[in-house]
């Protein structure tokens, strides 16, 4: 086993790198083992500076812990859910039963909204949650609305304006699915705009 002679240059590099870099990186730069780096740092009284990134994450988690889920915080911080859980545990943060149920409810509502958007745009569902009773009707109604039809508040009645070309094929398909159509006249116009 060879002994390492510490030069002034190596010691200077160690004092510069050790507090801010990882031990393995410092060992590679100096060309010695990690154990040797730790021993010399201990002799010189060097300590690691607090991890600024960890401190920023801890501060964010402390501020948002009581009203955001672990997954939401992980997404915001760009880290894993497990990492957020570990930081929260180290900080000693605990949620009450009421806070937990509010977060679960909020997360479920967001999931349902996202699932509903998937149905409207004809994408594959993400989960097994049933968000609409008739997917085909919801999808077709959304398509008709984008073509210029005006949807009534009941969502089964659509109004067609006089100045655009009506799509008879789509209207027939929609009637089979339970939607109905009326031309937009003066009396209907008042009903539509009051909704």
Domains, number: 4
Biggest pleated-sheet summary: 3 strands, mixed
Total strands: 3
What fraction of the residues are assigned to beta strands by DSSP?
5-15%
Low-confidence stretches: 191-195
Principal-axes geometry comes out as elongated
Q: Order the strands across the largest sheet as they lie in space.
A: 1-2-3
End-to-end separation in angstroms reads: 86 Å
Structural class: mainly alpha
Mean pLDDT: 83
**Number of helices, where a helix is a run of at least 4 consecutive DSSP H or I residues:** 10
Task: Tell me what you see in this structure.
This protein is mostly helical and 195 residues long. Helices cover 59% and strands 5% of the residues. It has helices at 8-17, 23-30, 34-44, 52-64, 70-77, 81-91, 97-120, 135-147, 168-176, 186-194, and strands spanning 150-151, 157-160, 180-183. The chain has a three-stranded mixed beta sheet with strand order 1-2-3, with helices on one face.
List the helices and strands and how they pair.
Blueprint: H1 8-17, H2 23-30, H3 34-44, H4 52-64, H5 70-77, H6 81-91, H7 97-120, H8 135-147, E1 150-151, E2 157-160, H9 168-176, E3 180-183, H10 186-194
Parallel strand pairs: 2-3
Antiparallel strand pairs: 1-2
Features:
disordered C terminus; 4 domains; elongated; mainly alpha; 3 strands; 195 residues; three-stranded mixed sheet
Gist of the model:
With 195 residues, the chain is mainly alpha-helical. It is built from 10 helices and 3 strands, in the order ααααααααββαβα.
């Amino acid at each position: 086993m060879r002994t390492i002679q510490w030069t002034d240059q190596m010691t200077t590099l160690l004092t510069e790198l050790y507090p801010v870099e990882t031990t393995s990186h410092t060992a590679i730069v100096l060309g010695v083992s990690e154990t040797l780096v730790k021993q010399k740092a201990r002799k010189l009284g060097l300590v690691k500076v607090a991890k600024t990134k960890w401190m920023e994450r801890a501060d964010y988690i402390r501020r948002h812990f009581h009203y955001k889920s672990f997954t939401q915080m992980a997404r915001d911080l760009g880290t894993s859910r497990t990492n957020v859980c570990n930081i929260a545990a180290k900080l000693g943060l605990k949620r009450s039963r009421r806070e937990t149920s509010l977060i679960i409810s909020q997360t479920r509502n967001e999931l349902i909204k996202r699932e509903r958007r998937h149905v409207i745009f004809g994408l594959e569902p993400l989960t097994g949650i049933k968000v609409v009773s008739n997917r085909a009707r919801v999808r077709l109604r959304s398509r008709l609305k984008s073509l210029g039809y005006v949807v009534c508040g009941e969502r089964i009645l659509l109004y067609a304006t006089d100045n655009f070309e009506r799509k008879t094929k789509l209207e027939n398909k929609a009637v089979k699915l339970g939607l109905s159509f009326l031309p937009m006249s003066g009396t209907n116009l008042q009903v539509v705009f009051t909704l």
